[in-house]
Each structure stands twice: as structure tokens, then as C-alpha cells.
TrEMBL record:
PANTHER family per record: LEUCINE-RICH REPEAT-CONTAINING PROTEIN 57 (PTHR48051:SF62), PTHR48051
Name of encoding gene: LRRC57
InterPro entries for this protein: Leu-rich_rpt, Leu-rich_rpt_typical-subtyp, LRR_dom_sf, LRR_domain-containing
Top-level taxon of the source organism: Eukaryota
Keywords, alphabetical: Leucine-rich repeat, Repeat
Identification of the protein by name: Leucine-rich repeat-containing protein 57
Keyword Iron part of the UniProt annotation: no
Gene Ontology terms: cellular component: cytoplasm
């Protein structure tokens, strides 16, 4: 892509606050973007070949949405954590294994998509995010859900298509968790914490494609309590 094309994109972005350049084979984050660091609200660089984000990404002080799906990112810079206004972060289909230590400083973050990466555990940094609504960690290599998950503030947690065979009962303590997706994992019925059914806020539990028949779930103690929440939620959205 020539300089003139990039220039045209930058001029449009200056007016709209939106920079979108997808599927152009970019191998790096366009440095010229920093000229717009103080007025860009949305950046979408999905479907490129970007391997790393430069530290200057931390300068985009009003950025609300950042999308880098389908790139080649293996690590995120600590500077990303300076984006105090960031609400939406889409990083599906990269090669990430962990989040920066300071990730919990993204105080405004509401939606985080990390599907199709190489995470082996639920990152503990997520528990510091107080406004998080949706976390998508589907299609990773997560094998267990640790005790720290009990502090997660998310409303929806998607862990479909991992290799989860252990899940902490602390997940029942998540104060806002309504939707828990665990489809196509390696869960035995005996390791599914009963408290998810009897003693949590969860009103949609998706567990198809594990190592037990769904009808067996109905025999567990607490299933009727879960169904009460399930039905009440359905009525609310009907």
C-alpha cells in the first residue's frame, strides 16, 4: 500500500476519529498514526500481519476501541495499559500467551476478546477490571480455571473449545457472572462445581460437548435452583 493511500486514510481519520485499515498485509503498526494520537477513538487493523505493537500505542489517550483480530501478535507492550478510556479490545486469532502485568489498569475496559490465542490459564489481571462485561477466551489451550476467577467482575465468560478438565468452585462467587460458556472442553460431571447450580448468579450455563450427557446435569442437586434463574432471565428478555 502506497504512502498516498495511507495519507488519504489518515486525513479521513482526522475528521472522523476512526482509523480502519484491514486486510492490507501490514507487517507493522503504522507509525504515522501517532500524529492522530490525541483524537482517534477507534483503530481497526484486523486481518494484517502485524507481529508487535510499538510502545507509542500508549499515547492514544482518547482511544475507546482497538481491534487487531487475525494478526501475528505474540506479546503486548506494557504501554497498552495506559489507555484509560479503552472500552473494547479485540485480539482474536493471534499468538498471545499472556497479558501485560499492568493490564488491570485498563479501568474502562468492558469487552475483551482473546479467542483463538495460546492462553493456558485465565489471566489473573482480569480480576482487577471492575467494568468488564464480556470476556472471550474460547479456542485457547486453557486446562483449568483457578481460584482467582472468583474475583472476576464479568457478566459473560466464554471458555468454549479449550481443554478444561478442572474448574474452581470459586467461580460461583463471581458477583456479576450470568453467562458461563464451557462447551467442548474435557469436563467430567464430577468436577463441575455444584455451587454453580445451587449458589451462583449464573443463569445460562452452556456445557454441551464435554465428557458427560447433558441430561445427567438435571440430576444434580441445585439444578432446580439454576432453572429458576434460567427461566426468570428468559422471561426478562422475551
Amino acid at each position: 500500500m502506497g504512502n498516498s493511500a495511507l495519507k488519504a486514510h489518515l486525513e479521513t481519520a482526522q475528521k472522523t476519529g476512526v482509523f480502519q485499515l484491514t486486510g492490507k498485509g501490514l507487517s507493522e503498526f503504522p507509525e504515522d498514526l501517532q500524529k492522530l494520537a490525541s483524537n482517534l477513538r477507534t483503530i481497526d487493523l484486523s486481518n494484517n500481519k502485524i507481529e508487535a505493537l510499538p510502545p507509542l500505542v500508549g499515547n492514544f489517550s482518547v482511544l475507546k476501541s482497538l481491534s487487531l483480530n487475525h494478526n501475528k501478535l505474540t506479546v503486548l507492550p506494557e504501554e497498552l495499559c495506559k489507555l484509560k478510556k479503552l472500552e473494547i479490545l479485540h485480539l482474536n486469532n493471534n499468538q498471545l500467551m499472556q497479558l501485560p502485568a499492568a493490564f488491570g489498569q485498563l479501568a474502562a475496559l468492558k469487552t475483551l476478546s482473546l479467542s483463538g490465542n495460546k492462553f493456558r490459564t485465565v489471566p489473573v489481571q482480569l480480576c482487577r477490571l471492575r467494568h468488564l462485561d464480556v470476556v472471550d477466551l474460547s479456542r485457547n489451550q486453557i486446562q483449568s480455571v483457578p481460584d482467582t476467577v472468583g474475583e472476576l467482575q464479568a457478566i459473560e465468560l466464554n471458555l468454549n473449545q479449550n481443554q478444561i478438565s478442572q474448574i474452581s468452585s470459586q467461580i460461583s462467587h463471581c458477583p456479576r457472572l450470568k453467562v458461563l460458556r464451557l462447551e467442548e472442553n474435557c469436563l467430567e460431571l464430577s468436577v463441575l462445581p455444584q455451587s454453580i447450580l445451587s449458589d451462583s448468579q449464573i443463569s445460562l450455563l452452556a456445557v454441551e460437548g464435554n465428557l458427560f450427557e447433558i441430561k445427567k446435569l438435571r440430576e444434580l442437586e441445585g439444578y432446580d435452583k439454576y432453572m429458576e434463574r434460567f427461566t426468570a432471565t428468559k422471561k426478562k428478555f422475551a
